[in-house]
Predict the 3D structure of the following.
Amino acid sequence: MTQLAIGAHVDQTDPIAEAQARQAPLVQFFLGDPQSYKGPEVRYAGGADGLRADAEAAGVDLYVHAPYIINVATTNNRIRIPSRKLLQQHVDAAAAVGAKGLIVHGGHVGKDDDPAKGFDNWRKAIDATDLKLPLLIENTAGGDNAMTRYLDRISGVWAAISATEQADLVGFCLDTCHAHAGGNALETVVPDVLAITGRIDLVHCNDSRDDFDSGADRHANFGAGRIDPDLLAAVVRDAGAPVVCETPGPADAHLADFAWLRERL
């Protein structure tokens, strides 16, 4: 097989330099503050156009992670409406820098809410957003009312989205730490997800500091966490998608993680 593309989540000031420091063909980064509704900002000195052109010239694929606070599934208008607005702003900004995809978490509903409301809110969000690039919905680790922690919920989201005109622009990002901590068996998670979504567009490959089904979203470097190393590599191999390591540390820590993973692939 051709060698899998492996990169990392990096600082947003100069993603290309970060990619080169890691000898990586792709990187993921935020545009602005991941905990703020203030909207995206491009911190690259050359602006959006410069980043797009320079990444293309360097042969580096860019992925953008949307803010964590986006929750388009919620029934709370004061969160859902600003979330939709923020999602569109990040779609626009990610497209402007030439990103291959925008990764967004699945969100959640309140403890007394019917999950079906959340599924339908996802449908409405996709209908209301002008998707200028693939939107990659990511599975999450915690919360009983999460939209993308458990397979049956992911199935509900997908069924709702598949009715929209832009369904082909909605993909899936599989996070190994979130799957493990969320209680999904890594032995079968790739075929399980593919049976629901038909696609895995990106893998967030992370070890987990916590045990299976702990609900805790805490990433660890490879071999330093609770996930069986062979299982971690098997998920990456089976998914066959580009890989972003969201593991802790600077470039040398990521280079060590890449080497660890390649050795097992």
User: Anything to note?
Assistant: The beta strands are 6-9, 26-29, 61-65, 101-105, 135-138, 170-175, 202-204, 207-208, 219-220, 243-245. The chain has one domain: 6-244. The chain has a mean pLDDT of 97. The domain at 6-244 is CATH 3.20.20.150 (TIM Barrel).
